[in-house]
Amino acid sequence: MENVSFSVDRGEIVGLIGPNGSGKTTLFDCVTGFLSPDAGSVVFAGRDITGLPPHSVSRMGLARSFQQVRVFPRLTALENLRAAGQQHQGVHLWSGLLPTRRSRRLQRELDERGLELLAVMGISSVADLPASTLSYGQQKLLEICMALMSRPSMLLLDEPVAGVNPTLIQAIKDYIRRLNAGGVTMLVIEHNLEVVMDVCHRVIVLDSGELIAQGPPEVVQTDERVLRAYFGK
Amino acid sequence: MRRGLHPKPGVLVATAVLLALLMPLLARSNYLLHILVMTEIYVILALSLNLVMGYAGLLSLAPPAFFGIGAYASALLSLRVGLSFWVGLASAGAAGLLFAVAIGVPSLRLSRHSFVIVTLSFTLLAQIVATNWTELTRGAMGLPGIPAVELGGVKITSKTGWYYLMLVLVIVTVAGFKALVGSRLGRAIVMVREDEVLAQAVGLNTASVKLWAFAISGLLGGIAGSCYAHYISFIDPSLFDFYYTENLLIMVILGGAGTVWGVVAGAVIFNAIPELLRIHPELRTLLYGLVLLGAISVAPGGLAGWIKAWRESKRPSVEAEGA
Asked: Which CATH class is domain A13-70+135-231?
């Protein structure tokens, strides 16, 4: 990737689009610490987070989902949420070895938050089922819930509606808007342009690792370079 | 949903402990008691492998190394320095832990496959050192005359005494292990096994979690080694043999990697059965290999997985609702 420079303002929903192989997921990986950029920097909430490991980035309130849906397969849905949330309770890994009052309270908080998120996404019924037995759509929703367990200030979604049926697409669009209304800034990779045009305030277009356009959806949609990148000449 | 067939866990644990307490009354020969004590040592060692392999999903071939290091550390401290078993036990645990950290820091950064090779090499290396550093270890001649344990001025020399001493250690270890895997740290260890990338994405420092799991495994291995040294009163470099690794793998895999009671049962069964059947040792190794192959194809979740599947098949099925 070269010459990719952009910013996302607090409270925005920004779409990240571009043909396959244009570097969208690579960009996510650089921002969230899974890859270290050779040059350039990533600034989040006024702090330089370039090269920080993924877990530190996550703990700063920058959460992400994956293109290939990722859940902990042998844990139940609720256990997945506990696992995703426990790093964000501000206590050491070693605490909770003894069944103290405090550790029980922290545990209860995780459960309450987890069940609440499952209810919001409409998948309360699968709380006690192993994640591997959930349908693809349910896993996608669970993954978003997991990202939300940290109460992130910014969420990076990698193709949230890929392979999802039309009813669920509508639901996910609604969740994205609701989360945003609740104060979560979003950067969304999505191939479904209808969804991008519908929910995003602003769109960034990548092609072969370069930023070729950015602006409001309606403007980007008619940009000559964008059309060329997508459809050829 | 629990009926007569599914007694409460507490009842099962109490029964198991009671049975364990009564065991020496049933096992009247010294030979049987010896097998029981060895079983107890193996329970601790099998749990040490289970934590890394069953919970963190990392195959470690180093348990015999920590076992041997613990045995030598404890034996040398009491023979050369004259320290008591209890100091030796603590030092053996510490030595296991420190070596695990020293090996873990570089090797856990590698791929999972490379980690396996490093742990195997470490065990082989430990054996070479034990064999050749003759000034310290007397090499292949071994270290005889490791003193017995003293507890409140009384020397524990009988097998029954050892059985109860080890039973206390086993109960403490199992209880501690249960608490660990049920805790925040235990959940973190399982997250590493299930999906390391996702674990990092939700804020887990997986490098440190893996190191902790490996370190605790080293600690348990060292403790088991110290007990063995003082119980048998003689150790030599054959402690590091691959034979022990194979035994442990059988116990953990067939018992049910990633479960506590499955692995405890695995350690008990695979110590008791071969001894009682009195099979020729080399034939036993061969049989173990066959049993392992068969079990992985028939019951990949081990004993614990098999029982769980059986219990679930007895329950009314839970239908997933579509979203």
From this structure: alpha beta
